[in-house]
Amino acid sequence: FDNLKFTSKYSAEYFDVNENQYLNPFYGDGFATGGGAYAYYKRVFDYTWSNYLDFRGNLNKNKDVYFDIKAGFEAQSQQNYLLNAGGTNFPKILALKYLASTAKPTNAYSLPTEQGTNSIFSVGDFNYKDRYVLSGSFRRDGSSVFGANRRWGNFYSVGATWNINEELFLRDSKVISLLKLRSSYGENGNSNAFGLYTALPTFGSGYNYGPNPGTALNNAGNADLTWEINKIFNVGVDFGLFKNRITGTVEYYNRKTSGLIIYVPYSLTAGIAGQNTNIGAMRNKGIELSLAARPIMSKSFTWDIAANFAHNINKVEKLYLGNPIPNGNFQIGEGHDVQEYFTRLWAGVDPANGNPLWYTDASKGKTTSKLSEATLSYTGKSASPKYFGSFTNTFNYKGLSVQVQFNYNFGNYVNDQWAYYLQSEGLFLGGFNQYNSELSSWKKVGDKTNVPQIIIGGNNGSNNNSTRFLYNGDYIRLRNLQFGYTLPKNVLKGTILSGANLYLRGTNLFIFKQDKNLPFDPEQGVSSSANLNVYIPKTITVGLSLTL
Fold first, then answer.
1. Cα 253–Cα 258–Cα 261 angle in degrees, nearest 5
2. Residues near 427 by beta carbon (within 8 Å), at least 6 away in sequence
3. pLDDT tens digits along 64-75
4. Contact between 181 and 198 (Cβ < 8 Å)
5. In the chain, which residues have pLDDT < 50?
6. Are 472 and 519 in contact (CB under 8 A)?
7. Strand, helix or coil for residue 126
8. What is the per-residue DSSP string for 10-42?
9. What is the pLDDT of residues 68-124, one digit of tens each?
10. pTM
11. Contact present, 121 and 53 (Cβ < 8 Å)
12. Coil vs helix vs strand at 188
């Protein structure tokens, strides 16, 4: 068949990681153990092999009404090998830094792991003169990480696009150059982030009986463990105005995840703590906007604007027996954001005596200076931002260019995980450096401050985790500022160069944050928790780009 094509693609990667860590015996973290060392090695090999047939059928002479069908098989495999070891008590000489010199081995561990996925897939499209496009897909995936009874999952999608600008009533419009309405619904599966062998009954080592090695059941297995299912609805509009001088996209999505794999606790009489089970449900929905425009365009000067905006709402809809799940600084609970902080509610400092105050419960009707009387509560504050995006301006004038890009993030709170040590009101005074905010601590009756009195040994547990150490994470960052100059073509005439550009770029030069009390950079990743991370560096780069 002239329109039938067979394709086979094989891709693979191999890499290894070697790490060596040395703690000297004279000072620092290695002093107490006479020095220490740690060695780590990891090797990974993975491949993907895809084979499929592709058939295109033209339905008219102009070949602008056609369908395209693909069908095939795909195999994926990953093999890992891990080896690590550690030791302490080194000779008092800095030249010996590897485990061969340790007097006391502390740990040794090695383990191979592997996983595989097989997939049967098909994709179909129907196109009517680039005006109406219908699409659909179906795939059947089987993964080794799931139980023997439920390894395979069926997933599909359907979508449609209407290029309204191709209709007769808009084809000759001088205002609207692009107007596309599109929508889709689909399902996909997740098989990551909960372990490779959780569906199998497994035994663990280290349960030794005197000098004899021992093993014990550490996972009951779940033969019915299967895919987490994401059901995603999407509708969007793409537009272009005035010969695409202004373009943009408006998009709404609603993503429901069901069959969430959650660790369900067992009775302690079972001999194991619990087991992963498909029991939870969660929803994410939101909007995404993007806009690009060229307000000024002439022979010698252009001005381009690009901006995007995103807003997401997260909600946990179902958990096992409705029971919340502790998760570090958060507690996953029905009706709450999956990253809503769950901690004590800080009420400030008693101006009469400098003691810390917490609310006893979420009603905030009563305060206490006793840590044990302050219950953990949902705070209504999430680590997930409500709004984020960027804004970019680019100017070009006769070879000169300037680009300014800002990133922004609003609506989340960041947690200081090290405040327990660094804002301790005397508990770690002399052992850890303290924040300069400790200088504003309570000192006399009537002082109004948020820092309790400093007392050697600590002040009633004031440094324990609470909303005191949650900070507003709003910020606007000058992500990129670049100046450039492109040499004119006539200057390069007679040389071997066809182009030359000189540029000066500054990255992360300034940040504007709303919370003035925040002692660290608000950009702390998806968990919004500071872990003594190095500040995002400011960099200045000078470059020359030459084209032959």
1. 125
2. 457, 458, 463
3. 999 999 999 999
4. no
5. none
6. no
7. strand
8. EEEEEEEEEEEEEE-SSSGGGGGGT-EEEEEEE
9. 999 999 999 999 999 999 999 999 999 999 999 999 999 999 999 999 999 999 999
10. 0.86
11. no
12. strand
